Amino acid sequence: MVYRRTEKTERRLAEVRERVVSAALAVAAEHGFEATSMSAVAERADLSAGGIYRHFPSKGALLTEVFKRASGHELDVLASVAAVEGGPGQRLARVIEIFARRALDGRRLAYALIAEPVDPAVDAARLEYRRRYRDLFAGLVREGVAAGEFPAQDAELTGAALVGAVAECLVGPLAPDRARGDDGPLIAAVTTLALNLTGVSAHVG
């Protein structure tokens, strides 16, 4: 007879898995991906290391799920910002501003998501989410061109350039060894740079 898990067992397993992911996300947010060991996650989740391996076969698999969870949440936030009323340039400026501000407010996790050397499986997820960010930015650029706010351009190419430029501008300030200063001027400069990449020479308020 084939053993089938009961609904109660499935629910309990799902709850434990969620506990593991939440614990790993908390550790990564404090210490980065490299320091997110299975033992540290087990301690945070109040489980044995063996209990974690029942849900994730490797640290890479666990951190891939953590990356997807964190990046997916950030992308959802930005998508909601992009959907509010306003012109395309205004909304793009707001998206970039929120992206930079949220990264700088949660800098240890943001650095891990953007720049920290990671397992190949996590790196593959990072590339996928960079494409999703590109598509979000490209959509706003496309709207801007259609509305006459931005000059004619390849929206997908500009979207990719925006992802790369914004991320690169933040890598240094997000680095774990960098002392925190006043983030306001940096956020304003990154936002203006992003708009300049679309062909708009002044900040869109």
UniProtKB/TrEMBL annotation:
The keyword DNA-binding applies. Keywords: DNA-binding. Pfam families: TetR_C_24, TetR_N. GO terms for molecular function: DNA-binding transcription factor activity; transcription cis-regulatory region binding. InterPro entries: DNA-bd_HTH_TetR-type_CS, Homeodomain-like_sf, HTH-type_TetR-like_transc_reg, HTH_TetR, KstR2_TetR_C, Tet_transcr_reg_TetR-rel_C_sf. It comes from the Bacteria. Residues 14-74 form the HTH tetR-type domain. Residues 37-56 bind DNA. PANTHER family: HTH-TYPE TRANSCRIPTIONAL REGULATOR PKSA (PTHR30055:SF226), HTH-TYPE TRANSCRIPTIONAL REGULATOR RUTR (PTHR30055). This is AcrR family transcriptional regulator. It comes from Streptosporangium album. The lineage of its organism: Bacteria, Bacillati, Actinomycetota, Actinomycetes, Streptosporangiales.
